[in-house]
Amino acid sequence: MGKGGEKTEQSGECSTKTFGVYTWEEIQKHNLRTDKWLVIERKVYNITEWSKRHPGGTRVITHYAGEDATDAFQAFHPEPDFVRKFLKPLLIGELDPGEPSQDRDKNGEILQDFRQLRETVEKMGLFETNAMFFIMQLGHIILFEILSWLLLYFLGTGWINTLICAVLLTTSQSQAGWLQHDFGHLSVFKKSKWNHLLHKFVIGHIKGASANWWNHRHFQHHAKPNIFKKDPDVNMLHVFVLGKTQPVEYGKKKLKYLPYNHQHEYFFLIGPPLLIPVYFHIQIMHTMISRRDWVDLVWSMTYYIRYFSMYAPFYGVLGSIAFISFVRFLESHWFVWVTQMNHIPMDIDSEKYRDWLTMQLSATCNIEQSAFNDWFSGHLNFQIEHHLFPTMPRHNYWKASPLVKSLCEKHGIHYQEKTLWQGFKDIVR
Q1: Domain extent listing, the chain
Q2: Which of 169, 182, 192 is nearest to 135 (CA)?
Q3: CATH number among 1.10.3720.10, 2.30.30.240, 3.40.600.10, 3.10.120.10, domain 6-104
Q4: Per-residue pLDDT at 217 exceeds 80
Q5: What whole-number distance in Å separates Cα of residue 414 and Cα of residue 331?
Q6: What global pTM score does this model have?
Q7: What is the pLDDT of residues 152-211, one digit of tens each?
Q8: Please, which residues have CB within 8 angstroms of residue 85's CB and are 6 or more apart in sequence?
Q9: Rounded to whole angstroms, what are the CA distances from 192 to 109, 135, 183?
Q10: How far apart are CA 29 and CA 247, in angstroms?
Q11: Taking the CA atoms of the chain, what radius of gyration do you get in angstroms?
């Protein structure tokens, strides 16, 4: 049929269903809050109403309204054939045969090569998880928790013991953060209900946070990394200005909320120290209560019940609050330096509608591999591989890395890898 026309499909003896045939120009108009279409494998779907029920959150799927979402769909869903069942009722048509598979000015050769790379790593078994790896990760987290309590029980609450205990708990909390990140992204066990339960257990019972809150934020970050108004991680609430274009925009609009020429100095006062103990803590509680997420709220309450049961006998209630605040203070530094060294020094800008490979590489860099770097960052030193393949278990990132490097070299895309120290310095820069 001609562009913008319709065609009829007959499936066996089922009733006739009418589909539209659309151009990219037509599809791109449907990117409004009240009118959202997207394309997956040349099929056009109307997600306007269904996006409100999207398990990953309404925002992450809305960010692809009016676009080709094929690579994002593949990246986020470990069982795409199962998810396609939910897409069938949303199907409204397909791309006109004369239209390219990619939208806007995306490079078709890069798209094809990346999809071939994905097929290759799938055939290599790099999306298959080693359950024992994650069991060991959980085991060493619980071990640190137990050691911290035993230290106080047998040796007392002197300041040296308290400091050692705080370091043990900080380590446990930080490593639990990386582990819940794993369970949030991928299926460690074949039955999804166990992955769902373990995610709730680790982030709720061990960390006192919310799985749904994390999913809502983090999936947006992966879908559109370092893109203003789409990636929550670069929404700095006028506290910092990032990238090359935002300072110019603030200058033109004369937005002077803070002395941004000194942000590299006050970063150390309000960035790492306050992110987890203040900003995240308030946001998590507000999100659970305002959205009536009672399940996550109960999980997080089990953390506080356990914590005060363990430490109030040593420090009292007020002392326990001061102690956990100090642990959160330490953990926040660890979290900020690890998560930001891969993204903040990279390109941060408005939406440019890049292909999946180019978009992720422009916003992400790696930190060189070592036993310490792998453990310290929860293998997020391989941030490039993690962003390209979010459902790949972290113990396989190093195997995919040479293949990604080769593809980037072929297309002249910069694959940036640096030392841990250089990563820290670049945050300040």
Answers
A1: 6-104, 107-429
A2: 182
A3: 3.10.120.10
A4: yes
A5: 32
A6: 0.91
A7: 999 999 999 999 999 999 999 999 999 999 999 987 776 667 788 899 999 999 999 999
A8: none
A9: 35, 16, 10
A10: 30
A11: 23
